[in-house]
Write a structure and sequence with these properties.
By secondary structure, the protein is mostly helical. It folds into two domains: 40 residues, no CATH class; 130 residues, no CATH class. 73% of the residues lie in helices and 2% in strands. It has a two-stranded antiparallel sheet with strand order 1-2. α2 runs antiparallel to α3 and α6 packs across α7.
Length: 173
């Protein structure tokens, strides 16, 4: 119990001392920012959480060829084996997401292009650039820049948001 008057962070109502629940909206006095967001807009909160899961799931597949080349060319076969096993499990768990997104031509082209560019950059770094070269920093910068551009294109652009909205409406999650 709160031993003093307090203001609800969800609705800004003033509440009496020794109460744990807001008299106006029913939010807890000790509610976290997630609890408040969930209380204010339950549907919006659910959609934002689904969007986080959507982005994380697709990011796994974006890096798959990158890490396959990295582990294969550096001789880390045990990591390559673990990556293949985890990729198979991840693909099976997210097959509906993969089918939905890859049925869209824009997504398929963008995703495969960006993934191929990442793979080419790491391939060029491992095969053609020595560890003490000044180009190592430029390749690292190129990879980071490509990742930022890819994130924006796939998730924050108009087409990326429309694709997520269609996926969210179709799955109702």
């Amino acid at each position: 119990m709160v031993g003093y008057r307090w203001t609800c962070n969800a609705c800004s109502a003033s509440n009496e001392a020794n109460t744990d629940i807001c008299a106006q909206c029913g939010c807890l006095a000790t509610a976290s920012s997630d609890d408040i967001a969930k209380h204010i807009d339950p549907k919006g909160y659910k959609k934002k959480e689904a969007e986080k899961i959507y982005e994380a799931s697709l990011a796994r597949f974006l890096f798959l060829p990158f890490f396959l080349v990295l582990f294969a060319l550096t001789g880390r076969l045990e990591m390559l084996g673990l990556l293949i096993i985890s990729a198979v499990i991840s693909i099976r768990a997210n097959i509906e997401l993969i089918k939905f997104n890859f049925s869209n031509m824009w997504f398929r082209r963008t995703f495969l292009t960006m993934s191929a560019l990442l793979t080419l950059l790491i391939f060029a770094r491992i095969d053609f650039i020595s560890d003490d070269s000044s180009l190592v920093g430029w390749i690292a910068f190129g990879i980071v820049l490509l990742l930022v551009i890819t994130y924006y294109i796939l998730f924050k652009s108009r087409r990326g948001k429309e694709l997520f909205d269609r996926y969210y409406q179709k799955n109702g999650s």
